[in-house]
Specification:
Largest sheet: none
Keywords: Membrane, Transmembrane, Transmembrane helix
Structural class: mainly alpha
Oligomer: single chain
Radius of gyration: 26 Å
Protein name: Tetraspanin
Number of strands: 0
Organism: Hydnum rufescens UP504
Length: 218
Amino acid sequence: MPSRTLTAVWATLDFGLMVSGIVCIAFSFIWRAPNLVRDLTISHLDLNGGLILGIMLEIAFVISLFAITQPKPLTSGFRLFNWVLVADSIAIIVVGSIVWFYTLEERAEYQEVWLQQAVSTQIQLQDKFSCCGYFQGTNIALGGDFCSDIGAASSQPGCVNAITSAADYTLNNIFTTVYGFIAITLSLFLASVCQINKRLEEDRFRRIDEKRGGRGFV
């Protein structure tokens, strides 16, 4: 059998894979609850993407259980598992990169988001961040407690800095966490390769031992 250390490392990484999938699935549901600021940053499409990624990771985990419980000489389960890990790694890179690219043009991107919001939502954001409009003096939604008068509202700072700061915090945490999953999938890929090589090596020694009629190799 593969060494206990190798098996322990593989099992720890596999547990990390399972937790990663659970995190993606859990947050894709938790973040569907209404939240004034978060809803500007994360759409239902984004949440569905996180759910799909989480399901992919959990499918890989289920396949890993099949691989590790296969009889000793067999490696087909690990080979299938590694191909699934490659697919998961590509999906992780794609999702993480989409989020990261969005952070590069936040001020322009969130101006479009601001303009798409209902006036009532804009007023809530203005009251929350004590600002008026997106950029100063533009796209002001009159009403609420802070921007009730056009004269006073025009002199107040715009909401661009407050909104992009909140969005940047959320997006940075998301793509950093998602990219972190790559460390798990790649490490698990290498650990699975080691499992394959160890099984092949032990099987080769077993065959040699059988031919020699001895009991010394495995």
